């Protein structure tokens, strides 16, 4: 296999990671619908506790899976800028189109579903996620507010909260890329910056500042982007199956460490919050294993993870409106039926949404980026011409004749 082909395969593995993470988020939201019926003691609560405080929690660690998205964004979004294969103007124009157009499509879909299946009070358990985080009515103001990606919380399409942080990171990307490029020559400096980013996430979790919790996780991915080629070259030199097995297992457990520690550290205690803050490092470790381990690359490049990766953004956007609609129609007490119907329906709708909304948005984003990039290049060229155009200066010879020094330096000519 040629070197370029190997690198391409390793990066395709990231699509598989994204797809698996998106599916974990879907299962997580099904678990939130089921959660009210696993409390109050008895066998159901014992099963819930046993599953959530074991490695099985990885199957539905939804919020933690979003951290994997953030590391991937920090890496993949920054990569063309680090490699200078696109301009900043083209990047921003393209990025905004790729974010906003699918978001608006998902909001329209959610509004249609809310009107088709009315969300009646009392149809689901009051005070739980399905009731509190999913709108029963929509106004023009609430639609426009969520369409802007500016609010801190969302209930028409609940998952948009993470897209808000994607937008904030996009605005801060010049700083993240600038810092990463400044440090790229020193692996030690990059590592220390990564440690500082992880520490900031821990501090943010402890003091309750979301910007500190999430934005440093994006930076971890950007730090990888500036040395990705070197990392891939090092990984290709020889297989290290034991290293990547240990790193992958440790990273997966670190991702859910706050859950595993619940028998000795209750939620919202200092120890629990510190462990949750370290989940960003777990997300980073899983991404590194995906690009460095040949075995992980083979698994993640198979058909199902790749398909999930292709539709992952669409799946992330459409699955909550689908699950909420079915839960309101059947009642959340039948949560297992909601899951049996809702998960396949979400996967099918994700494919349709990808074809009708997301893929066209990619085309529009590329065209917009190229147009804005050409316009920016034209403005830059015009400005440069104004700067370098020589000034024609008349002078007077001793004999009194006026001469002009023409452009090109060929000597004065008489006027």
TrEMBL record:
The keyword Acyltransferase belongs to this UniProt entry's keyword annotation: yes
Membrane-spanning segments: 20-38, 58-79, 99-117, 163-183, 190-207, 213-235, 242-262, 274-295, 307-329, 335-357
InterPro entries named among the record's database cross-references: Acyl_transf_3_dom, Acyltransferase_3
Sorted UniProt keywords: Acyltransferase, Membrane, Transferase, Transmembrane, Transmembrane helix
GO cellular component: membrane
Biological process, per Gene Ontology: polysaccharide biosynthetic process
Domain Acyltransferase: 13-350
MF terms in GO: acyltransferase activity, transferring groups other than amino-acyl groups
PANTHER family on file: ACETYLTRANSFERASE, ACYL_TRANSF_3 DOMAIN-CONTAINING PROTEIN
Name of this chain's protein: Acyltransferase
């Amino acid at each position: 296999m040629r070197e370029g082909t190997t690198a391409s395969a390793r990066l395709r593995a990231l699509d598989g990671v994204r797809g698996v993470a998106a599916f974990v988020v879907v299962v997580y939201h099904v678990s939130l619908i089921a959660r009210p019926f696993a409390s109050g003691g008895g066998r159901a609560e014992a099963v819930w506790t046993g599953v959530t405080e074991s490695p099985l929690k990885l199957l539905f660690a939804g919020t933690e899976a979003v951290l994997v998205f953030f590391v991937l964004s920090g890496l993949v979004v920054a990569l063309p800028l680090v490699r200078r294969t696109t301009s900043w103007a083209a990047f921003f124009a393209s990025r905004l189109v790729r974010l906003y157009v699918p978001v608006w499509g998902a909001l329209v879909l959610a509004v249609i579903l809310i009107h088709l299946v009315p969300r009646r009070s009392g149809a689901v358990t009051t005070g739980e996620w399905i009731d509190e985080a999913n709108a029963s009515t929509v106004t023009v103001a609430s639609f426009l507010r969520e369409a802007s990606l500016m609010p801190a919380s969302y209930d028409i399409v609940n998952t948009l909260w993470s897209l808000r942080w994607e937008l904030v990171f996009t605005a801060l990307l010049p700083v993240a890329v600038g810092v990463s490029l400044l440090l790229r020559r020193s692996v030690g400096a990059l590592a220390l910056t990564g440690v500082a980013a992880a520490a900031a996430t821990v501090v943010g979790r402890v003091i309750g500042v979301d910007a500190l919790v999430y934005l440093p996780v994006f930076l971890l991915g950007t730090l990888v982007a500036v040395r990705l080629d070197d990392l891939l070259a090092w990984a290709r030199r020889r297989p290290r199956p034991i290293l990547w097995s240990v790193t992958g297992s440790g990273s997966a457990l670190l991702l859910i460490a706050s859950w595993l520690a619940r028998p000795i550290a209750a939620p919202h205690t200092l120890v629990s919050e510190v462990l949750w803050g370290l989940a960003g490092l777990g997300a980073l470790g899983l991404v590194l294993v995906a690009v460095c381990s040949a075995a992980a690359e083979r698994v993640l490049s198979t058909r199902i993870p790749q398909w999930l990766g292709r539709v992952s953004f669409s799946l992330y956007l459409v699955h909550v409106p689908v699950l909420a609609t079915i839960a309101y129609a059947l009642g959340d007490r039948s949560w297992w039926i909601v899951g049996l119907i809702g998960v396949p329906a979400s996967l099918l709708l994700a494919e349709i949404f990808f074809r009708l909304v997301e893929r066209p948005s990619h085309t529009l984003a590329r065209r917009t980026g190229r147009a804005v990039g050409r316009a920016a290049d034209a403005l830059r060229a015009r400005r440069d011409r104004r700067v370098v155009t020589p000034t024609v200066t008349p002078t007077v010879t001793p004999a009194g004749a006026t001469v002009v020094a023409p452009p090109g330096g060929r000597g004065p000519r008489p006027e």
